[in-house]
Design a protein that fits this description.
It is built from 8 helices and 14 strands. The protein is α/β, with parallel strands linked by helices and 230 residues long. A hairpin with a 2-residue loop joins strand 10 and strand 11. Helix 1 packs across helix 5.
C-alpha cells in the first residue's frame, strides 16, 4: 500500500553530482525531493508548489542564493538551510541575518545533512491550518499575519520565531538555552545572553495589555518562558 508524502523539500544546487547525492540521501516514500539548479527554476517551483523546507546553495549560475532568500523572507517563513563553501564565513553571517534557519558548509556528511533536515522539519511541524487562535489573538505564521483583538501587530523575524516556539508548546516551559538554540541556531554561541530577554520584552510590549505583569508570556524563573494556557 502506498504511503502519503509527509514532507516536500526543494533543493537548489547546481553541482549535478552533489545534487543527485543529496536527493538520493533524503528521498523516501514519505519525503519528496525536488531538485533544481538555478534561481529562476527555484522561483518557478516556489510559485507553483508549497514546500516544507528549502535547501539552498549560496553560489548559483544565475546569481546569489542570498538574494532568493531575501525575496522569500518578504512573504514566507519557509525553513531554509543554506549550503556554503567552507571559506565563505560572510555568506553564513549574512544568511543568518537575512533569516536562514541553518547552514551547512561544504564538504559535509550526508548523515549530518539528514539530521539537520530532520531537525528543521520537527521544529516547524504544525497543523495544516497554520493559523492559531488564542484568546483574541490570531497568529498565522505562514502568512506572517498577527492580530490582537482584530488589530494587526508587526513582529520581527526573531519575535516570530520566539512566539511560534512558545505557542506551539503552550502550557509547557521552554528553557532559555533551548530557545536561544532554536531561534539563533548555530549562531547561538555568539548571541549575548541578554538578546533573548530583549526579544521577550519587545514581544510582551506588542502582545500583552500590561507588559510588566504579563498574562500569557510568563517567565519561569531560573528556567525559561511559557505561553500560559488560560
Amino acid at each position: 500500500m502506498n504511503q502519503s508524502i509527509n514532507n516536500t523539500i526543494l533543493l537548489v544546487e547546481d553541482d549535478a553530482a552533489l545534487g543527485q547525492g543529496i536527493r538520493l540521501a533524503l528521498q523516501s516514500e514519505q519525503q519528496q525531493i525536488t531538485l533544481c539548479k538555478t534561481i529562476k527554476a527555484a522561483r518557478n517551483m516556489l510559485s507553483e508548489t508549497e514546500f516544507n523546507l528549502l535547501i539552498l546553495d549560496v553560489n548559483l549560475p544565475d546569481g546569489s542564493g542570498l538574494d532568493l532568500l531575501t525575496e522569500i523572507r518578504k512573504t514566507s517563513n519557509l525553513p531554509v538551510i543554506l549550503l556554503t563553501a567552507n571559506d565563505m564565513e560572510m555568506d553564513i553571517v549574512t544568511g543568518l541575518e537575512l533569516g536562514a534557519d541553518d547552514y551547512i558548509t561544504k564538504p559535509f556528511s550526508l548523515a549530518i545533512l539528514r539530521a539537520r533536515v530532520n531537525t528543521q522539519l520537527r521544529r516547524t511541524a504544525i497543523a495544516p491550518n497554520s493559523c492559531i487562535q488564542l484568546d483574541g489573538f490570531s497568529f498565522d505564521f505562514e502568512r506572517m499575519e498577527f492580530l490582537k483583538n482584530g488589530q494587526p501587530v508587526e513582529l520581527s523575524k526573531t519575535e516570530q520565531k520566539l512566539l511560534r516556539i512558545l505557542v506551539n508548546n503552550r502550557g509547557n516551559t521552554v528553557s532559555r538555552a533551548d530557545l536561544v538554540d532554536r531561534i539563533w541556531t548555530d549562531g547561538a554561541e555568539y548571541v549575548d545572553e541578554n538578546a533573548l530577554s530583549v526579544t521577550m520584552k519587545r514581544l510582551r510590549n506588542k502582545l500583552e495589555d500590561n507588559p510588566s505583569k504579563p498574562t500569557y508570556l510568563k517567565t519561569i524563573y531560573s528556567i525559561g518562558y511559557t505561553w500560559e494556557v488560560k
